[in-house]
Sequence to fold (328 residues):
Amino acid sequence: MKTIIAALLMAAILMLPLILPSAFYVGIATQILIYGLFAVSVNVIAGYGGMVSLGHAAFLGIAAYAFALLTTVSGLSPLPAIIGSLALTTATAALFGLIALRTTGLGFLMITLALGQIVWGVAFRFVDLTNGDNGISLPRSSASAAVVSPTVFFYVCLATLAATMGFLALLMRSPFGASIEGVRDQPRRMSTLGYDVWVIRYVTYVVSGFVAGVAGILYIHLFRFISPHALSLTVSSEAVLMVIAGGIGTAFGPLIGAALVVLLKNVASAYTDRWPTLLGIIFLFIIVAVPEGLVPGLRRLGTKASTILRPKAVVSSRVVRADQKGTR
Fold:
């Protein structure tokens, strides 16, 4: 049954660009995929690694800025620019990891917040390179050929998201993935067993930064514009909220959370200016009704409902059988 539901869901996603009424809605669906990938990167470090970061938008912004500068200023073609941007983002994540992982818990949260604000400040103040608050516009000729068609770019984003989630699924099912969850749940016991807790956390942080960089590459291709807002604390906080709302530590929870936030920002905002209030009410409802997140919460409620309904079905079937015997 689960396989059939998964197949139907996948078929619906593949058909989505063909059944949506206009390119505007295809663009919103593409935004969900990109922000979903960004939320997945936050889920890697927060859900699997147990370290909540408030500066992850820095990696998305660094990748997007690097791609824009490499293509518009340096004149590189898209493919070398993508490779260079991801290399720079990964190197930055490796450097930031050395600083941030000197502490854990609230200290880690504050350090990642500070690092993110530093990158935001560089993007905002270094006007000669980043154009400051005006940002950098990416000419269509500087982007990859996939952005020519919104439908094609949707499938490019979908394939990138699927490949990334497949890679992360294999990683988490490996012995190293088990050690990541072990460090999250029992760091002292893992250290006693001989595992290098710091190295495991460091690799998790770098992998998470790389995935956020991939989301940044897709971001600059979709919007063809990057400004300091993309690196702001608001974007980092929204990604954390996406993960918490969908289900932290789950595979598909970040995607559900990203869909919720993107739809509210793009669709609900067209009807009311108070969409942030609506977003807050929805998050409040999630925390009260399904505190573990939408995906695990709805699964729990479904299991509870099935256990409540199952005895009634058994009783009714027994009554029917008794009636049948009585009529014979």
